[in-house]
Amino acid sequence: MIDNLFEKYQIRDTDKDVFWFKVAEADAFPSNGGLCVKYKDLQIAVFNYTRTGRWYACQNLCPHKMEMVLSRGMIGDEQGIPKVACPMHKKTFSLESGENLNGDLSSIATYPVKIENNFVYIGFSE
Ligand code: FES
Fold first, then answer.
1. What pLDDT, in 10s, does the model give residues 42-61?
2. DSSP string for residues in 55-120
3. CATH number at residue 102
4. How many domains does the chain have?
5. C-alpha span between 73 and 14 (Å, rounded)
């Protein structure tokens, strides 16, 4: 059952049309921090990386111990790669590719984010 939980976040086909899900006003997100939002039965971590002016979204589920915690992780930079460190045991993941940067865990799913009229949108493949 836990494996099924993880697989839900791997479904991503970048060739398909993107559905832009309207999340919330940009002001609702903490500077250089994250929030967890729900889309269907998925928990998505959304990060407002104020230091670089970029936004990122990824699954909230950490593949290490299958905990829904990544939105509470610290964001930072590793040799130019934006990353999130899980608050539980500090496994780090690229916010661009989803790759585990300090281990050999499965990659996490990442999603495109756009800001329009001060609203945050996450792109999902439908
Ligand atoms: S649960 Fe995320 S690093 Fe252990």
1. 999 999 999 999 999 999 99
2. EEEEESEETTTTEE-GGGSEEEEETTEEEEE-TTT--EEETTT--BTTS-PPPPPEE-EEEETTEE
3. 2.102.10.10
4. 1
5. 26
Which residue from 104, 69, 108 is spatially nearest to 89, judged by alpha carbons? 69
Is the full-model pTM beyond 0.90?
yes
Give the ligand 1 atom nearest the CA of 66: 1
Q: How far is the CA of 85 from the centre of ligand 1 (A)?
A: 9
Give me the residue label for tokens 């690229």: 94
Domain around 92: 2-125
Which DSSP symbol is given to 44? E
- Which residue in the block uniquely carries the two structure tokens 């790669």? 81
> Residue 117 Cα, ligand 1 centroid: separation in angstroms?
35
